[in-house]
Amino acid sequence: MDITGKIIQILPEQRFNGKNGEVVKNFFILETKEQYPQKIKFEVFGEDKWKAMGVAVGQDASVQFDIKGAEWQGKYFVNLQAWKVTAIGGGAQQQNNQPSPQQNQEIQQNEDDSNLPF
User: Fold this and answer.
1) pLDDT, tens digit, 9 for 90 and up, residues 76-117
2) Could you give the domains of the chain?
3) What pLDDT band is residue 33 in, cutting at 50, 70 and 90?
4) Contacts of 2 (CB under 8 A, 6+ apart)
5) Which of 17, 30, 90, 102 is at 20 to 30 A from 118, Cα to Cα?
6) What would the pLDDT profile of 50-79 be if each residue is shown by its tens digit?
7) Contacts 24+ apart (CB under 8 A), 92-101
8) How many angstroms separate the CA atoms of 114 and 79, rounded?
9) Predicted TM-score (pTM) of this structure
10) For the CA atoms of the chain, what is the radius of gyration?
């Protein structure tokens, strides 16, 4: 999914131990630019992914994300996991999250080599 708005807040990161070592979760709030603006909380797993996104307060951005649902002890939870943030216009810090030409070539090769039916 994709949504656009302005990043209005970056929340404190959370660190915890998982099965494969330490896990870092970062959070930010995006405010939509609709007649009735919504403030939406996104989470990002992984310190490297977070740093590569270049999220900054005041930045107009497009956020690509997945919706994750879970059940725990009869209670249901929904998380919005951002996997890409792209700066729009002349907001705060901007970072190009587009793949390099070499990465594009590797992606194209992988797609061409795949003979999967789906």
Assistant:
1) 999 999 999 999 986 444 344 444 444 444 444 444 444 444
2) 2-113 (2.40.50.140)
3) very high
4) 62, 63, 64, 65
5) 102
6) 999 999 999 999 999 999 999 999 999 999
7) 92/7, 92/56, 92/57, 92/58, 92/59, 93/54, 93/56, 93/59, 94/54, 94/59, 95/52, 95/53, 95/54, 97/52, 97/53, 97/54
8) 31
9) 0.71
10) 17
What single letter denotes the amino acid at residue 53? Answer: M
**pLDDT for residue 23 is more than 60:** yes
| Whether 65 contacts 49, CB under 8 Å | no
- Collapsing DSSP to helix, strand or coil, 81 comes out as strand
* Secondary structure (DSSP) of 36-68: S--EEEEEEE-HHHHHHHT--TT-EEEEEEEEE
Nearest alpha-carbon partner for 82 in 28, 32, 33, 39: 28
- Cα 25 from chain centroid (whole Å): 11
Q: Which two tokens stand for residue 66?
A: 């997945």
